[in-house]
Each structure stands twice: as C-alpha cells, then as structure tokens.
C-alpha cells in the first residue's frame, strides 16, 4: 500500500458531507478528527465540514448564523448565572450539553465566560475558511471539555495574494435588531514573509419585548418580605432585551516565514473589543436596605480579549514531522448592572480576568506503509480572577482560581488492507482539581465498493468540573440563586463532592453514493456517568440551583442524510436527527434537547451569475426544566437567500430569514421575527 494512500485515507469511513449542499467528499481534507491532514473518507468519527463557499451562500455574518443551521447541534440559552444569559446561547452536540462542546479557533482554546455563551456572535464569518465539527467524544486528542464534540473554526490560510471586503446591513420587519457589518481580509507575500490581516466590525441595535413584572423586596439573608420597602409590590412593564445593543470589533494578523527549507515559523496576534448592553429582569440592592427581586436592571459589558501565539513546524524528513506551539489567550470582562426603577449600588460581581496558557507538541511519524503514529504532549493552565467566585456575595473583590492540565496522547492510524482501515488512540490527563483520567478511542471502516462504506467507532470521554460549577456565588439566577458545589451559603448548608463526567460512546454508520444520490445513516449510543447538571432545591426565597452529578445518563440517537442533484441547476439536501435522552436515576429527559430536528435545503442556479437557496429548519419540542413539567412547542423557520455575481470582482446578496415570522418561545432565546438583509462583497 502506498504511503500517499495511507496519508489521505487511512482510518475509518466516509462521513457526513457539507451541511448544506452535496459536495465531492473525495476533495475534502480535514484535520480536527486526527490532528493529521487527511481525506474525509479516512476519518473514524462523525464530521460535518462547512466551507467558505457555503458560508457565503447563506450570507452569514458571524459564527452564530452558521451553527444555527446545522442539524444535531442545538442552542441552549440562560445557562450562565446572570440575567443577560437570556440573550446568549451555548452549543450542545448530540444532547451532551453546552459544557461538553469545545470551541477552537485554529485549534486553540479561547479564554472567555464559562460555557462560551458569547462566542457564536464574536467570531466574524468573513475570516473563516471552513468549520470542522466532530460529533462524539474527542477527549483522546483534546482532553476535558470535548466530551460531546469539537467545533474547530479554521481561518483563511495564506495561499495566493488576495483581498476581500464585505458590507452587510439587516433589520427585522419592524425596523428593530438592525445590524451593520464591515469585514475585510488581506493576504499577501513578499521577499521576507507571508502575511494575513483581517478586521471586522459588527454593530447591532437591540431587539426587545414588552414584559410585565411585579417587584418584591426581601431580606437577602432570611428571604423574608420587607413590606415597608417603597419598592415592594410595584407593578410595571419594561422592554426586555433578547438581542443586545452591541458593537464588536475584531482584528487579527498572522506572519509566516520559512527559517530553513524545512522549518516554518508562524506568529499570530488577535484582538477583539466588545461593548454591549441590555435591560433584563433580575435582582438589585436597594440603597436603604433590602434586595429588590424581579426588577428591571441595566447590564453593561466592556470586554476585551488578546490572543498571542507562535508555532513551529519542522519536517525532519518525508516520514517525520513535528509541531510546537505556544499560545496565551487573555480575556478581560467588565460587567456592571444597575437598577432602572430606583437608585441603587452598582453591581460589578460578574467581572473577571481569564487567562489560558498552553504549550503543545505534536509529532507525526510514518512508521511504514501501514502505520501513521501521532503522539503529543500538552501543558495548559487556566486562571480565573473573578468576584463571582468570591464566597462573600456582597464583595466585588476578585478571587483567583487556577487549574492545570498535563497530558500525553498517542494515536495509530492503521491500513489493514486496501479496503479495511482502523484508528486507535489513548490519552492520559493529570488535572490539578480532579482525578487523573485515561481515555481510549478505536474506529474501523470497511469499504465494500467504491461508493459504499460501513464504519464503527468507540470513544471514551471525560469533563472536569469548571470553576463556575465549583465556586460561583450568585444571589440572582432565574427564579432563585445559584451556588457552586463547593459553596456553603444561605440556604445551601453543605458542600457537594462534584466528580468529573465520564462517557462511553458507540456509533455505526452506513454511507452510499449512487449516481446523483448520496446518503448516510448513523446510529449512536452514549452512556454518561456522573453527568454534571444544575439541580434546584427549596422554594420561594429559599430556592437555589447548584451543580451535582447525575448517576447515569443515556443518549440514543439516529442521524439521516439524503442528498440529490437533480441536474446542474438544482440540488437538495435533507438531514434528520432523532435523540432519546434519559436521566436513568429520575427517569426524566434531559433539558433543552429536542427529540427531533430536521433541515431541508433547496439550491437553484437560475443562471451562471444568479443563485438562490431556500431552507426549512424544524426544531421539535423540548423540556426546559429537570422535572419535565414545562415543555416548549415545536417550530419551523423558513429562510430564503439570493446571490448575484456582478463580475469577477463584485457580487451582491440578500435574503429573508424567518419568512413567515414564526415566533419562538422565550426559553429558547426568542428571535427577531422576519429578518431582511442585503450585502455587497468584493474579491480582488
């Protein structure tokens, strides 16, 4: 067997193609699933690849616009302990939960809030070359946080010199939720180095809904009502924010240079600045004493992040390549909340400094014609300074918590025969605040014919508790309070020994292509031991939420993909995901996990320069609380897009999202209604 064949397709099976349209899989190379570049047909885990062409086709402004249209991925709102969480979502893959999804930018972690609730709106779509989404545990390569899957946003590479500019404007049918986007990318080469520069500004006005409220004044220590407080019992209505008034500025650059013919050095610098504000219903202190609950508050964020990294790639010979990367991601969050109805102290409780320092080395060795070894080591330190983890709920002083990870991993991609391949891998993680973990992964693929393949995959995963789950002290969360498992405060009178989650996943898939029709069906089963979830105790003023382990969670699922090209002008793609989730201890379904979700895309090329796309997104019913007493309605959204190429340089695009103005329930984040947009794109 030739080395080139192994390098491009040694391992498992043909997997999911592009999310929105039929793509020749033989031309798609991926890196996230094995940390080696290979044809997607040689990967043992389920993968979705979204290309820049598909991103441009749907006229996406940010990562959020892309992810919300991908099947088997769903958004979970109101996850982190702040009233503004109603307008921000985290991503869950295959029902595992928001904390189990690892988001990477060019393979690097980003420092930010826990559960990454903002990242979907922070990353401009214009810088993305492609997105690789690996579904299922990837802990053997990425450690903790990848128990549900990995989303790797890969930015545009330095290839031929080019410049791109994108201008976009949108608003809903009532003139609200206006958004102005400006994006540019410049890639070039000179006698000294290669470079890439990008910038993006996204300016948004808010989308709000009128909501009634009744205030109550309580003693923050005892929870008893203070009837004499002038704010007690006040009724009113307020425009509550579901999409923030926000300005997000992103800037980045990369320089590359071959120091020798075999040694490539790279330097990256990324910066983003974010200002956002909104009005929410929450709790605020009264200057004369007492806590006013369910009152309008103004929340303002002034956030910044700086990412710096350097990397080296050394090709020792044709069989051996090694990579070394150092990076630091520093995030500065400054949040202030103030009451709207009365004069009260400013709450700065949810400000923080977050730093991730990482050193990683990966070596790939072509041992022989049948084996590719990948082995690596990683050291990561995560530091969080925040008053939200200060055990004194009345203090805004920062408390520092630090977690370190030391890891080694090994992977072997094996060509058994010309039609049978396998991948096996193992990883050891030493974690400063949890027990050490060892995880395994194994996958095989059997190619029956050129167009038909069967694959099977087994993977183990784990996730250590994050700092918020352990230490947060929040007197304001949903209809109560939230405390970390280690915290003893107020109605929470004992600590809880929170264990890491551990998972085992099995999946099997059959894929086939016949003429213009391609299909894949995937069945998967996941067992999660000690799954970390929020549980509630008490009622009224004594109600609080805390993180505890669920003894056993079982997830069974089925994914179906059908693609058909009618002719060179018209093609369709259909995806269906079915999830059956259960907390085996309570015999309850998991929250914010729709049983059925589906996507249908119709692409029609009117002429060589004019293309249209129509999509239907269906999200089924889902429970919003662990008692399974509240359930949302299902809904279907219909989107229409249009792209017209004026000449080789310029193109214009536009579209309407949610054509029929379908409403979405508040627990699911609401939407802005029918949304119209137009844009102009230049490529030089």
CATH domain topology: Maltoporin, Chain A
What percent of residues adopt helix (DSSP H or I)?
under 10%
Overall structural domain count: 1
Global structural class: mainly beta
Please summarize the sheet with the most strands: 22 strands, antiparallel, barrel
Average pLDDT confidence is 87
Helix-strand blueprint:
Elements: H1 3-9, E1 29-30, E2 38-39, E3 46-51, H2 52-57, H3 63-67, E4 73-77, E5 89-93, E6 101-105, E7 108-109, H4 119-122, E8 128-135, H5 139-142, E9 149-155, E10 162-172, E11 179-189, E12 194-204, E13 207-214, E14 216-218, E15 235-243, E16 245-260, E17 263-285, E18 291-315, E19 320-339, E20 352-368, E21 371-386, E22 399-415, E23 420-431, E24 437-447, E25 452-463, H6 467-471, E26 473-477, E27 480-483, E28 501-514, E29 517-537, E30 544-565, E31 570-583, E32 596-605, E33 610-619, E34 635-645, E35 650-657, E36 675-683
Main location: membrane
Family: Belongs to the TonB-dependent receptor family.
Keywords: Cell outer membrane, Membrane, Receptor, Signal, TonB box, Transmembrane, Transmembrane beta strand, Transport
Keywords:
mainly beta, Maltoporin, Chain A, 22-stranded antiparallel beta barrel, 6 helices, globular
What would you note in describing this structure?
- It is a single chain.
- The chain is mainly β.
- It has one domain: Beta Barrel (Maltoporin, Chain A).
- The chain is built from six helices and 36 strands.
- It has a 22-stranded antiparallel barrel. It has a five-stranded mixed sheet with strand order 3-8-9-6-7.
- Strand 22 (399-415) and strand 23 form a beta hairpin.
- The longest helix has 7 residues, at 3-9.
- The radius of gyration is 25 Å and the shape is globular.
